[in-house]
Specification:
The chain folds into two domains: 4-202, 2-enoyl-CoA Hydratase, Chain A, domain 1 (Alpha-Beta Complex); 206-252, Orthogonal Bundle (Lyase 2-enoyl-coa Hydratase, Chain  A, domain 2). Strand 2, helix 1 and strand 3 form a beta-alpha-beta unit. It has helices at residues 28-42, 65-71, 79-98, 114-121, 145-151, 157-166, 172-178, 190-202, 206-219, 224-239, 242-252; strands at residues 4-9, 12-17, 49-54, 103-107, 110-112, 124-128, 132-134, 170-171, 183-185. By secondary structure, the protein is an alpha/beta fold. The longest helix is centred in the middle third of the chain and has 20 residues, at 79-98. Helix 9 (206-219) packs antiparallel against helix 10 (224-239).
């Protein structure tokens, strides 16, 4: 049984974390499988959207604490292992946002610590309305510093600090209200709602989604003035696309566009 399963339906790739007995923790093996599959998808021109889900009763419970404990057995007390672990995790999160296809988290059960980081990192997220989210490392004496990076780029700072320092869970309705997820839906509608969102993305012009995703994350680290300069250049590039010319012509002519991509 593969630790990560991939099913493609037309232009949508579904990646399912498949270690339910460990609540789909981000073990060394899981992170390696995810990294490899995302890199493959990035090069797959037939895929235009990605759905990331979890098997069993939880989306993802964060890092594998048993592996982390075993890592302490090294001569340096685990320092080299932990440095490598969090570097690989950070690289994985950056890969999610750097591939050209939008990635949608389909969340249920719980998303804790690095699992919550995974939700915050994905471009979009839909959750079952009974899902709980937390960055709970503080409860075991570990501040969730790397999950903090994604969390503080998604939700208000004071709410992020509260979650990080109290270790308390929030429910899906609050996660939606503060912007951690796009929508909370009835559990029996989770898959259909996520796939409907993915289908909307598939229907858009692929080259524009690609350039738009890259621009979205690039400008977010700039000053406002720098961001406007950069975004203006992106608009210029986009306006020169033949398919954009066709899209505008179709809109003005009140017809469906005949895009080539």
């Amino acid at each position: 049984m593969a630790i990560l399963e991939r099913y493609d339906t037309q232009a949508i790739a579904r990646l399912t974390l498949n270690a339910p007995e460990r609540l789909n923790s981000l073990s060394d093996e899981m992170m390696a499988a995810l990294q490899a599959e995302l890199e493959a998808i990035a090069k797959d021109a037939s895929i235009r959207a990605v759905i990331l889900s979890g098997a069993g009763k939880a989306f993802c419970a964060g890092h594998d604490l048993k592996q982390m404990t075993a890592g302490r057995a090294a001569e340096d007390g685990g320092k080299s292992y932990f440095a490598d672990l969090f570097a690989r995790c950070s690289a994985l999160m950056l890969t999610i946002q750097s591939i050209p296809q939008p990635v949608i988290a389909e969340v249920h059960g719980i998303a804790t610590a690095a699992g919550c980081q995974l939700v915050a990192t994905c471009d979009l997220a839909i959750a079952a309305d009974d899902t709980r989210f937390g960055v709970n490392g503080i409860n075991i004496g570990l501040f969730c510093a790397t999950p903090m990076v994604a969390l503080t780029r998604n939700i208000p700072r004071k709410k992020a600090f509260e979650m990080l320092t109290t270790g308390q869970f929030i429910h899906a309705d609050e996660a939606e209200r503060i912007g951690l997820i796009n929508a909370a839906v009835p559990a029996d509608q989770l898959r259909s709602e996520t796939e409907a969102l993915a289908q909307k993305l598939v229907e858009k012009l692929k080259a524009v989604v690609k350039i738009g995703k890259e621009a979205f994350y690039t400008q977010s680290t700039m000053t406002t003035a720098e961001a406007y300069d950069y975004a203006a250049d992106v608009m210029v590039q986009n306006m020169l696309f033949k398919d954009t010319e066709e899209g505008i012509s179709a809109f003005l002519g009140k017809r469906a566009p005949n895009w080539q991509q």
